[in-house]
Specification:
This protein is mainly α. It has 13 helices and no strands. It comes from Rhizosphaericola mali.
Length: 334
C-alpha cells in the first residue's frame, strides 16, 4: 500500500507538471504560428492551427523531455522551435493528402525537391519554409533523408485505409505501425541527442504504439470517414489487447537494451509507460462495450458517447495510475 501511494504521487506529480506547463508551450507555438502567418501573408486553417499548437504542447512535455532526460537535461529553446516546425510540416502534409487536387508527384516534389519546388499558395510556402528550416538544423542529414523516404512511403501506403476494398489484418498492422513508427522516429532527429540504432528502435516502437492509441481514440471519427483502422475493424477486444501488449513488451525490451545508467533508463521507461497507459484506458472502454461477450457489437451503430474516451475524467486518470501500478512498469525506480 505504501509503495502504491508513492507510485500514485509520482505519477500525479508528473501529470500535474505537464498540465501546468502545457499552456505555456501552447502559447509558444501560437506565437510562432502568428509570426509565420505575418511573414507569408496568409492564415492557417483554424482547425490545422489548433492541431499544430495542441499537438506540440503535449508532445514536447510528454515525449521530447523524456528523451532529453537521458542526457540529463530538458528540451532546449532551439529544439522546441524545431518541434513546432515539425508539427507544421506533418499537419500541412496531412492537409495536402486530404486535398483531391494535390497529386502524388507534387507531394514527392515538395518533400524531396524543395530547392526547385515552386509554391503556388500560402500553405505550400509555409510547408516549404518549415521543411527547409528543419533540414538546415539536422546534423546527420544522410540518415534523416533515409527516414524521410521511409516516412513518405508509409504515408502513401496509408492511402489504402481510405479505400473501400478491405485491407488484410497483417497489412493493416504494418501500415499502422510504419506510419506511426517513422513519424515519431524522424522527430528524434530534431533533438540534439546522440542517436543510435538502439535508440531508433525505441522511437519506432513508441511511435507505433502512439498511432494505435490515436486510432483507439478516433474510432468514432474514423468510422464516420470510412477510414480502415485496426481498432474500428475489431471483433474481439481481448485479442486486440494481446496485440497491444506485444507492442508494449517490445518497447520495454528496446528501452532496457539502451546503454544508460539505471536511473536514466528508468526515467525514460516511466515516461513512455505513461503514454502506453492511455491505450489501456481506451481498451478498457471497449471491454465495457463487449461486456464479457465473445465479440464486440458493430461499432458503426454505436453512439458517439459510447466510443469517446474522455481523459479529463478523474476515473480515467485514476485508471492510468492503476494500470501502471498493476503492471509494475516502474518497480525498479521505487
Amino acid at each position: 500500500m505504501f509503495r502504491k501511494a508513492i507510485f500514485s504521487k509520482l505519477l500525479a506529480q508528473r501529470l500535474s507538471h505537464i498540465l501546468f506547463l502545457r499552456k505555456r508551450e501552447y502559447h509558444r507555438a501560437v506565437k510562432l504560428l502568428h509570426e509565420l502567418e505575418s511573414k507569408f501573408k496568409g492564415k492557417i486553417d483554424p482547425f490545422t492551427f489548433e492541431k499544430i499548437a495542441k499537438s506540440y504542447s503535449i508532445y514536447v512535455l510528454m515525449f521530447a523531455d523524456a528523451f532529453t532526460q537521458i542526457e540529463g537535461r530538458n528540451t532546449t529553446e532551439q529544439e522546441k522551435m524545431r518541434m513546432v516546425h515539425y508539427f507544421i510540416c506533418s499537419s500541412l502534409f496531412d492537409d495536402f493528402c486530404d486535398r483531391m487536387d494535390f497529386d502524388l508527384e507534387r507531394l514527392r516534389d515538395i518533400s524531396f525537391h524543395q530547392n526547385t519546388f515552386q509554391p503556388q499558395n500560402f500553405e505550400e510556402a509555409l510547408f516549404l519554409y518549415s521543411h527547409q528550416f528543419l533540414l538546415s538544423e539536422i546534423r546527420d542529414q544522410e540518415r534523416y533523408i533515409q527516414i524521410s523516404h521511409l516516412l513518405f512511403q508509409s504515408q502513401i501506403d496509408s492511402f489504402a485505409q481510405a479505400e473501400l476494398e478491405a485491407i488484410p489484418e497483417e497489412k493493416l498492422k504494418k501500415i499502422t505501425e510504419d506510419k506511426g513508427g517513422y513519424s515519431v522516429l524522424i522527430s528524434g532527429y530534431y533533438l540534439d541527442i546522440s542517436m543510435t540504432t538502439k535508440l531508433e528502435n525505441v522511437y519506432f516502437a513508441i511511435g507505433s504504439i502512439i498511432q494505435i492509441i490515436n486510432d483507439l481514440f478516433d474510432i468514432f471519427k474514423d468510422l464516420q470517414e470510412k477510414s480502415q483502422t485496426i481498432p474500428n475493424k475489431l471483433k474481439d477486444v481481448n485479442q486486440f489487447e494481446n496485440y497491444f501488449n506485444s507492442l508494449v513488451n517490445q518497447l520495454i525490451k528496446n528501452i532496457f537494451a539502451l546503454q544508460l545508467s539505471p536511473k536514466r533508463r528508468e526515467k525514460l521507461h516511466f515516461a513512455l509507460m505513461n503514454i502506453c497507459a492511455f491505450g489501456y484506458v481506451a481498451i478498457d472502454n471497449l471491454k465495457n462495450i463487449q461486456n464479457n461477450q465473445t465479440s464486440l457489437p458493430d461499432l458503426s451503430i454505436l453512439a458517439r458517447k459510447a466510443l469517446i474516451v474522455d481523459m479529463e475524467k478523474w476515473s480515467n486518470i485514476w485508471f492510468c495510475i492503476k494500470v501502471c501500478y498493476e503492471k509494475q512498469w516502474i518497480k525498479n525506480i521505487l
